[in-house]
Amino acid sequence: AQKITQTQPGMFVQEKEAVTLDCTYDTSDPSYGLFWYKQPSSGEMIFLIYQGSYDQQNATEGRYSLNFQKARKSANLVISASQLGDSAMYFCAMRPPGGTSYGKLTFGQGTILTVHP
Amino acid sequence: EAGVTQFPSHSVIEKGQTVTLRCDPISGHDNLYWYRRVMGKEIKFLLHFVKESKQDESGMPNNRFLAERTGGTYSTLKVQPAELEDSGVYFCASSQVRGLEQFFGPGTRLTVL
Predict the structure, then answer these.
(1) Which of B33, B54, B101 to mutate to test the interface with A (most CBs of A within 10 A)?
(2) pLDDT for A6-54, tens place per residue?
(3) What gap in Å lies between CA B81 and CA B83, rounded to an integer?
(4) Environment class of residue A59 by beta-carbon count within 10 Å: exposed (0-12), middle (13-18) or buried (19+)?
């Protein structure tokens, strides 16, 4: 079974600074995918970034990067140059390697990020 | 391009009543997923459609929940009869390719009194 752990219920960061949101995962499968989603107070879930387990380089999307450390089973999200609009709940998620459950995402508990001006 | 839409945004019903939630995926997305988040807990997978077929329904909690996707377009999730523990936010998502990013709708907040 797959499991995602986000140990930081809440994080605070000053505007324009960088912040790292932690995510560790547990799986016995060699092939898997890792995702980060953002949920602002309006409620919608916004896809941010994806990392495949066999990807050689860390994924990056604009100000978002994923610090993927496979041996440690961690997939931390790094947000550079934080903006007030980054204040939201952030979820880490994982999908299994294949089979009928290939589309099934397992989510962590989420981290609430607050950006201070 | 329109995103995933869900209706209603909120629903308040009494225990024992029936509620039907609707999801319209992004046009052309064959994969449609239902998730829910009960207060204070993680977002949990319910099921996955590929076109009109149920690919994986391992997360459906019990037989009070019925999901359909007739014609492979929109989907409905019916809860009958609703119980107090069914309260939460129900999310629908769709994807063009199975296993890659899923695009979520805004969710339906269900309150069972």
Answers:
(1) B101
(2) 999 999 999 999 999 999 999 888 889 999 999 999 888 999 999 999 9
(3) 7
(4) buried
